[in-house]
Design a protein that fits this description.
Layout (H helix, E strand, L loop, with lengths): L1 H16 L30 H4 L5 E4 L10 E8 L7 E10 L8 E4 L4 E6 L2 E6 L8 E7 L8 E10 L9 E9 L7
Antiparallel strand pairs: 1-2, 2-7, 3-6, 3-8, 4-7, 5-6, 8-9
Length: 183
């Protein structure tokens, strides 16, 4: 009987530890009143690794100003690699006015996936992609200009010990205005 109880407890512990290998729950980008992954990975303050010079979260490929309907190739990289074993992230693109979905995020390979909550798309890592610190995907700008678009991202540079302790969480935000008629 005690072996059965111990097995059940171990199964529950392992399930909770590995619960987010396939991606975090929706709405942890740090933007629009959302928390970040530091809720579960709370050993360090958000961006403590940046402040210590260990690394950062870098998002590139979004334009300086978007053109409605155009597709942009985006790269998200967690540069904190020393003593790290796995990485994860979540990113959303929303209209600054109102916080609604702005455009479409699309995976380009099996390392990312889309989850939705309350009409907002979140692109995030999949278990298959978590052994790389770099993720690629595309963003299709809104079909018509929606004003400024705010992109919020949070990332986890995890030590790979299957425990939420000792992991560094990074957060960033980018604001993209619509292109003017002259551009």
């Amino acid at each position: 009987m005690s072996a059965l109880i111990i097995s059940a407890v171990m199964l529950l512990v392992m399930t909770s530890i590995l619960a987010y290998a396939e991606g975090p729950p929706a709405a942890v980008t740090g933007g629009f009143g959302e928390g970040t992954c530091v809720t579960c990975h709370g050993s360090f303050e958000v961006n403590a690794g940046r402040a210590s010079g260990l690394g950062d979260i870098v998002v590139s490929g979004f334009p300086g100003a978007y053109r409605p309907g155009e597709t942009y190739t985006v790269k998200l990289e967690l540069t904190h690699v020393k003593d790290r074993g796995v990485w994860g992230f979540q990113l959303a693109a929303r209209a600054k006015e109102g916080g609604g979905q702005a455009g479409q995020l699309k995976p380009t390979d099996g390392s990312t996936q889309i989850v939705e909550e309350k009409g907002v798309q979140y692109i995030e890592h999949r278990a298959d992609g978590s052994f790389s610190n770099s993720f690629g995907f595309t963003w299709v700008a809104p079909a018509t200009a929606v004003g400024d678009v705010v992109v919020n991202a949070a990332g986890n540079a995890a030590n790979g010990d299957a425990d939420s302790g000792g992991d560094y969480i990074y957060s960033t935000s980018v604001t993209i205005p619509p292109a003017s008629a002259k551009e």
